[in-house]
Amino acid sequence: MHSTQDQAIHLEEESNPSATPTSSRKMPKSISISKQLASIKALKKGSDLEKAIATAALIFRNSSDPDGKLGKATAKNLLQTQFRNFTEGQETKPKYQEILSELDEHTENKLDFEDFMVLLLSLTIMSDLLQNIWSAKNEK
User: How far apart are CA 15 and CA 28, in angstroms?
Assistant: First the structure.
């Protein structure tokens, strides 16, 4: 999560401020996620889980179009770049292949935040990294 928070996301288009429930003002997209999170007063004393979800929301918002939708190609790129530790090694799994092929089909359709989060959770649940996390917890 730290590398995602610290990485600046540069995009060409400005986002629609109404597309983000966490802030009423536009945040320039060249500002790092960690700085964007720091500017949200409600998260100053937020839990790690709240900050993790806020990070996902900001990454989605920074990558979405002015209508708050995410193109399938952009979603696939985010998964392969921002979520790669969870997707690495999944290439041979049928469910992973199905998810990626759905992103390649009907590219005119876009994802809203809810669809994107369901996609993230699906990939998280099936990932080898999650199994490693559970194993590490059990080794304590």
Answer: 9
- Please say whether the beta carbons of 106 and 71 come within 8 A: no
According to DSSP H, which parts of 9-127 are helical?
33-38, 48-63, 72-82, 84-87, 94-104, 113-126
**pLDDT tens-digit readout, 20-67:** 444 433 444 578 888 888 888 888 888 999 999 999 999 999 999 999
Coil, strand or helix at 91: coil
The radius of gyration of the chain's CA atoms, rounded to the nearest angstrom, is 16
Q: How far apart are alpha carbons 103 and 81 in whole angstroms?
A: 15
Residue in this structure with the two tokens 């004393």, named with its chain if needed: 45
H or E stretch including 128? helix 128-138
Residue 24 contacts by C-beta under 8 Å, 6 or more apart in sequence? 17
| Residue-level length of the chain | 140
Query: For residues 118, 138, 55 and 78, what is the CA-based torsion angle, rounded to 10 degrees?
Result: -60
Residue corresponding to tokens 């400005």: 14
Using an 8 Å Cβ cutoff, are 53 and 46 in contact?
no
